[in-house]
Each structure stands twice: as structure tokens, then as C-alpha cells.
Amino acid sequence: MVAPAARSPGTTTRPKRSITASAAPGTDLASFYLCATPRTSTCHIRWTEDVFQQGSQINLEFSGMRYGYTSPLMRTMSIGKPSDHIGDYMTERLRAWKPRSPRARPATPAATSL
Question: Least crowded by CB within 10 Å, which of 58, 65, 84, 107?
Fold first, then answer.
């Protein structure tokens, strides 16, 4: 603990989480999770002794909270070139997301795009 007189003016010793969470009533930061190869299928893993290597898949999961509702954000990345399995999977997902109809666009009601 730093004595108040020893701190620089305008600084605090509170953790950043409490500073950010106190910015607005009812807000909080949910836990941050990082899972990496070979445990990417294990949800919300907090710790592992594994070492990151070239081709490792890394999943980052962030979440903010307001009045008990969470807003998760998930990002997947690879260290270096992704493995063939991950690359094929991503190519297939991107191909599947392409519109099936030229009239199907984001924010277009389903009834008008058929």
C-alpha cells in the first residue's frame, strides 16, 4: 500500500477493473479468458502450462456487463500460419456466410429477400 502523501496527485492504487467498473452504475467487467491449442475446445479455461508455438490457435474471450447482462466478444487468431485444418474450416465458414441470393443483404427482412 502506498501512503496517500507519497502518491502523485490524481493517481490511485485501486485496480483498473474497479476504476472502469465504477465509471457508470451497474457496470462491471466480466472475466477475460484465453484458451489456446491444444485446449481450444475447453470453454472458459483460465490457466494452462502449455507454451504457445507456431500454428497455435488462440481464442480470446472478453465480456462487459451492465445490469447483469453480458456482452461477450470472441476473437480467434493463430500464431503464424494456421494449420491446414483451421484454414480449411475458416474457408468453409466464410463461403457459407456468403449470401445465397443477390437480394439477401444485412438488414434485409427475410420475407423480402426470397
Answer: 107
pLDDT surpassing 50 at residue 89? yes
What is residue 88's three-state secondary structure? helix
Categorise residue 19: left if φ over 0, alpha if ψ from -120 to 50, beta otherwise: alpha
Q: Residue 53: what residue type?
A: Q
Pairwise CA distance, residues 55 & 78, whole Å: 6
Q: pLDDT band at 75, cuts 50/70/90?
A: confident
- 69-73 CB contacts, 8 Å cutoff, 24+ apart: 70/30, 72/30
Q: State yes or no: cis peptide before 38, omega within 30 of 0.
A: yes
